[in-house]
């Protein structure tokens, strides 16, 4: 049996993951910003903590409370977050600050608070839910992609820092999953629009609107995939979820390699002569 600390279990992937872990008989300590999640503990054990992840002191206190409740925690899942769509030129400092408080600084503070406990245990797995937008971004997601790219980078470096301590890290990048992520609960649009960006940002935003409720990804299957990754003897550092995420990541990597090859002579030409 495992003990999980999962942020944002009121809806979406966090809710699906909490259900899946509880069904396995695991203990879940989940956070919600407000209200009570629609969860039946079943054979598992559920603790719900109310906390706004954007409140750094409260987020760190929630971690301490979770370890006090359970004694040890096997898996820390940074799931809570939201999306922000819009053109970079029209974004405000307040929009960007709020997004990074929730999507980047919140997970960082939780990880920092959890690490002394995990090091003392000598084991533990940190799972950061990022997005395919953080690896292969498109138009209209410049702000969201920046936040998720930051979390991807944090995960990749952190894995090398804590690996020798017996700790594991996985950055999970989902594609489009049929949750309410595209609703006003989880995604916001920059308040100022400009017709100059209609062919790029406007078109992409409209595509997101049309996709709501039709996403290919099944959140329950995604939750099972995360359970399998955590249970693996050698879990992945990077895990893509969904065929759309796989397609976008491969297209991006192919383009990066092609560009590196095309500019290799220039790249190599910047060293001091040997």
Briefly characterize the structure.
The protein is built from 8 helices and 9 strands. The protein is an alpha/beta fold and 274 residues long. Keywords: Oxidoreductase.
Structure, described:
The protein has 274 residues and is α/β, with parallel strands linked by helices. The chain contains 8 helices and 9 strands. The strands form 2 sheets. The protein has a 7-stranded parallel β-sheet with strand order 3-2-1-4-6-7-9, with helices on both faces. Strands 5-8 form a two-stranded parallel ribbon. Helix 4 (142-162) links the parallel strand 6 and strand 7. The relative contact order is 0.14. The mean pLDDT is 91.
Tell me about the largest β-sheet.
7 strands, parallel
What is the number of beta strands? 9
Mean of the pLDDT scores? Answer: 91
Structural class: alpha/beta
Shape: globular
Give the N-terminus to C-terminus distance in angstroms.
Answer: 58 Å
- Which spans of ≥5 residues are poorly predicted at pLDDT below 50? none
> In order across it, which strands form the biggest sheet?
3-2-1-4-6-7-9
Q: What is the number of helical segments per DSSP (H or I, 4+ residues)? A: 8
Rg from alpha-carbon coordinates: 19 Å
What is the N-to-C succession of helices and strands?
EHEEHEEHEHEEHHEHH
What proportion of the residues form beta strands (DSSP E)? 15-25%
The helicity comes to: 40-55%
InterPro entries: KR_dom (IPR057326), NAD(P)-bd_dom_sf (IPR036291), Sc_DH/Rdtase_CS (IPR020904), SDR_fam (IPR002347), SDR_oxidoreductase (IPR051911)
Protein name: NAD(P)-dependent dehydrogenase (Short-subunit alcohol dehydrogenase family)
Pfam families: adh_short
Family: Belongs to the short-chain dehydrogenases/reductases (SDR) family.
């Amino acid at each position: 049996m495992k003990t999980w600390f999962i942020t944002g279990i009121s809806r979406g992937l966090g809710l699906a993951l909490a259900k899946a872990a509880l069904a396995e008989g695991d203990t879940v300590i989940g956070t919600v910003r407000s209200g009570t999640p629609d969860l039946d503990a079943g054979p598992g054990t559920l603790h719900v903590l109310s906390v706004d992840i954007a409140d750094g002191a409260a987020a760190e206190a929630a971690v301490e409370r979770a370890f006090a409740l359970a004694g040890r925690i096997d898996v820390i899942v940074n799931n809570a977050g939201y999306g922000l769509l819009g053109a970079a030129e029209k974004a405000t400092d307040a929009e960007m600050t709020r997004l990074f408080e929730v999507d980047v600084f919140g997970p960082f503070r939780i990880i920092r608070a959890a690490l002394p406990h995990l090091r003392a245990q000598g084991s533990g797995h940190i799972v950061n839910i990022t997005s395919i937008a953080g690896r292969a971004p498109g138009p209209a997601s410049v702000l969201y992609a920046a936040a998720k790219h930051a979390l991807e980078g944090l995960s990749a470096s952190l894995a090398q820092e804590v690996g020798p301590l017996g700790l594991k890290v996985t950055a999970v990048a989902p594609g489009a999953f049929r949750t309410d992520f595209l609703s006003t609960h989880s995604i916001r649009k920059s308040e100022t629009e400009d017709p100059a960006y209609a062919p790029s940002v406007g078109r992409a935003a409209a595509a997101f609107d049309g996709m709501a409720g039709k996403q290919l990804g099944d959140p329950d299957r995604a939750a099972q995939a995360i359970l399998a990754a955590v249970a693996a003897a050698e879990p992945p550092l990077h895990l893509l979820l969904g065929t759309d995420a796989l397609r976008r990541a491969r297209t991006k990597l192919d383009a990066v390699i092609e560009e590196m090859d095309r500019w290799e002579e220039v790249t190599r030409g910047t060293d001091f002569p040997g």
